[in-house]
Write a structure and sequence with these properties.
0% of the residues lie in helices and 50% in strands. By secondary structure, the protein is mostly beta strands. The strands form 2 sheets. Strands 2, 4, 5, 6, 9, 10 and 11 form a 7-stranded mixed beta sheet that branches. A 4-stranded antiparallel beta sheet has the order 1-3-8-7, with no helix packed on it.
Length: 122
């Protein structure tokens, strides 16, 4: 059974840092790209960052550039999202996502994790 399992969310003060982890298991995710989306209350789910597994190319949405870093682990199919200089507007549920091709919108995603809450207090 294909699974994406996230961890690492929590409550942090503005200016703080968190690292999210996502482990892909249960099927051959070798050709899948991994990324992170987030959804704040009353808003649509949006792409935060993604990583093209074949060559390590990364993409970041503009509001997180320079503050968030997506990277992959050395063992298995693991992706991280290091978040620094967090702001209250980063508060959302963060979802790990997998897709074989593009990952521009939630419609492109083939597999989702269960989500992890990130709350940034002011």
């Amino acid at each position: 059974q294909a699974q994406l399992v996230e961890s690492g969310g929590g409550l942090v003060q503005a200016g703080g840092s968190l690292r999210l982890s996502c482990v892909a298991s249960g099927r051959t995710f070798s050709v899948y790209n991994l990324g992170w989306f987030r959804q704040a209350p009353g808003k649509e789910r949006e792409i935060v960052a993604h990583l093209r597994w074949s060559d390590g190319t990364t993409y970041y949405t503009e509001p997180v550039k320079g503050r968030f870093t997506i990277s992959r682990g050395n063992a298995g199919k693991t992706v991280y999202l290091q978040m620094t200089s967090l702001k209250p507007e980063d508060t959302a549920i963060y979802y790990c996502a997998a897709a074989r091709f593009t990952m521009s919108t939630s419609k492109d995603v083939e597999f989702w994790g269960q989500g992890t809450q990130v709350t940034v207090s002011s």
